[in-house]
Specification:
Blueprint lengths: L4 H5 L11 H7 L16 E7 L4 E4 L4 H4 L8 E7 L3 H10 L4 H8 L6 E4 L4 E11 L4 E12 L2 E6 L8 H7 L5 H4 L2 H36 L3 H33 L10 H64 L15 H22 L4
Parallel strand pairs: 3-7
Antiparallel strand pairs: 1-2, 1-3, 4-5, 5-6, 6-7
Helix pairs in contact: 4-5, 8-9, 8-10, 9-10, 10-11
Length: 368
């Protein structure tokens, strides 16, 4: 059997249980280099075409079927799970979307943003999920196009999203979402994504509590590694929340005819939520800084305790060392005490009595 010691020896250091690969994933983003997105193996297209009275739901639709909803006369939500370059280009070209926006939809690691044109409004942001196995925050880029009577959403992952509750609400006749224009649906998508941020932060907060107890019980390299990992995940939150605030603020300041003035208060509500999320993230960051300081203080305190014990032991052994050194000198012909029968016992007694006296003095002064 071919053994690889290097594969297992790295785990002897607990800090190596959390390698720097996650740091590279978070920080290594170069906007001048456009990484190529792999074509999705699975694409699921769902269409909700509705008005106040009726709704037509079509699952597993084809791209060609989506194009007809541009002029259906009702509100339409076209949700595309899984991105393929040809599909995105066909849909966007049909709705007269600028090539740079198409490029943003197909790119990865984009900063959340909002772009406005005459016939559409484009929003790009990330849906966040908390992986309870790796205790990390995962991102899924979502692009939302608001056109006249139409909302088109592009998602990376065809197996998960946070819109199930919104889909169920659309099926209920007479709701405000069914009665209003398509920009209210755009608001509902943004609001659902932002509200899910709080669920992710709640999971992260529970993890912070666990690490806080771990640091308080006893600092060790593993606890420091957990604190460092959580600080990295807070960077992910901060990189997503602040741009989303700008995105929603752009929707509030927009004069586009696609946005109904009656719905401005709804976008203001989303803005308030994302500001609250940013404040909570700063609170989490302060807690993690405090935990890191606590870990360092505990480590220094533990080191001081060890040094104190070692110093006391050294002091207690010093008299025995001195007495033994004196009696070990080669001058026995001039020191009659060396040849007495009780000389050895007297020396040993002094070696014990002097440290005990020192121990009493140390204790009385409160040095330990």
């Amino acid at each position: 059997m071919n053994l690889r010691p290097d594969k297992y020896l790295k785990f002897l250091n607990p800090v190596n249980l959390f390698p720097a690969k996650r740091t590279k994933q978070i920080l290594s983003v170069n906007p001048t280099i456009l990484p190529k997105r792999a074509e999705a193996q699975q694409v699921n297209i769902t269409v909700f075409d509705y008005n106040a009275e009726t709704i037509d739901i079509k699952s597993h639709a084809e791209i060609s079927e989506c194009l007809q909803y541009k002029t259906s006369g009702r509100n339409s939500w076209i949700n595309i799970d899984g991105l393929r370059k040809s599909d995105v280009e066909n849909v966007c070209n049909h709705f007269e979307v600028h090539p740079l926006v198409i490029e943003d939809i197909l790119s990865i690691n984009q900063r959340p943003k909002m772009d406005e044109a005459e016939n559409y409004i484009f929003c790009l942001l990330n849906m966040l999920y908390f992986n309870e196995t790796t205790f990390s925050v995962e991102q899924e880029q979502i692009s939302i196009l608001l056109a006249k009577d139409t909302v088109i959403s592009f998602q990376e992952d065809a197996t998960r999203d946070v819109f199930n509750q919104l889909r169920e609400k659309l099926k209920i006749p007479g709701t405000k979402l069914r009665q209003r224009t398509a920009d209210l649906l755009c608001y509902a998508l943004l609001d659902t994504i932002v509200d899910h941020y709080f669920l992710v932060m709640e999971k992260l907060g529970e993890r912070i509590e666990v690490v806080e107890e771990e640091v308080a019980r006893g600092s060790n390299p593993r606890a420091l590694a957990h604190v460092t990992q959580l600080r990295k995940e807070l960077i992910v939150l901060k990189r997503n929340f602040s741009p989303v605030r700008e995105l929603v603020n752009g929707m509030l300041r927009s004069d586009s005819a696609l946005l109904d003035d009656r719905h401005q208060k709804y976008y203001k509500d989303v803005y308030d939520h994302i500001v609250q999320a940013i404040d909570l993230t700063e609170n989490y960051r302060d807690v993690m800084v405090s935990l890191q300081d606590l870990h360092l203080n505990n480590t220094n305190l533990k080191l001081n305790e060890v040094m104190k014990v070692m110093a006391i032991v050294t002091c207690l052994l010093a008299p025995a060392t001195v007495i033994g050194g004196i009696f070990g000198m080669n001058f026995d012909e001039n020191v009659n005490f060396f040849h007495q029968r009780w000389g050895f016992y007297t020396a040993v007694a002094f070696m014990l009595i002097v440290p005990l006296g020192m121990l009493y003095i140390f204790r009385k002064r409160g040095w330990f």
